[in-house]
Design a protein that fits this description.
The chain has 65 residues and is mainly α. It contains three helices and no strands. The N and C termini lie far apart (45 Å).
Length: 65
C-alpha cells in the first residue's frame, strides 16, 4: 500500500532555451548604449528616463521569446 502512495513522479516542463543572439540584438544594444552615453554626457534627464523605459521593455520582450 505504501509503495502505491509514495510512488509518484513530478513532471517538470522542459526549460526554455534562450533565443540566439543575432545581429538585431547587437544593433539594438549598441543603439541603447550610444543613447545612454549621450543622455548621461548631456545631463538630459528626460532622454535618460525614456531610454530606461525602452530598455526595460526590450529586455522583457526578449525574455518572452
Amino acid at each position: 500500500m505504501w509503495q502505491r502512495i509514495m510512488r509518484w513522479e513530478v513532471k517538470y516542463p522542459e526549460p526554455k532555451k534562450p533565443a540566439p543572439f543575432d545581429n538585431w540584438d547587437i544593433i539594438v544594444c549598441g543603439g541603447f548604449a550610444y543613447a545612454f552615453t549621450i543622455s548621461v554626457m548631456t545631463f538630459n534627464v528626460v532622454m535618460f528616463i525614456l531610454i530606461e523605459l525602452l530598455w526595460s521593455w526590450f529586455v522583457r520582450e526578449r525574455v518572452k521569446r
